[in-house]
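tokens incoming
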């Protein structure tokens, strides 16, 4: 434990820049529901969330599972067969 929030990012400055550029709505490429909520909380309209799916490998399955379980990332493609890669 380092005493920090798991993901301390704030999307306010990015949302402000997008607003200054005239962006009011967007398709958002993310698996992170906090990112969507953060941008919507600053007045941007997310018309679609486009999931980012990578092929899980033995080297990254633990990382992907941690993102899903600890941060709530939407990684539905990690099915039980894929999760068994972690044990290899």
């Amino acid at each position: 434990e380092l005493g920090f929030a798991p993901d301390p990012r704030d999307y306010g400055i990015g949302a402000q820049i997008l607003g200054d550029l005239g962006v009011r709505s967007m398709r958002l490429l993310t698996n992170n529901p906090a990112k969507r909520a953060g941008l919507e909380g600053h007045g941007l309209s997310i018309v679609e969330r486009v999931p980012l799916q990578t092929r899980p490998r033995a080297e990254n399955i633990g990382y992907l599972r941690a993102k899903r379980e600890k941060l709530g990332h939407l990684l539905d493609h990690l099915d039980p067969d894929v999760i068994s890669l972690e044990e290899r």
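note: The helical segments are 12-20, 33-40, 61-71, 80-83.
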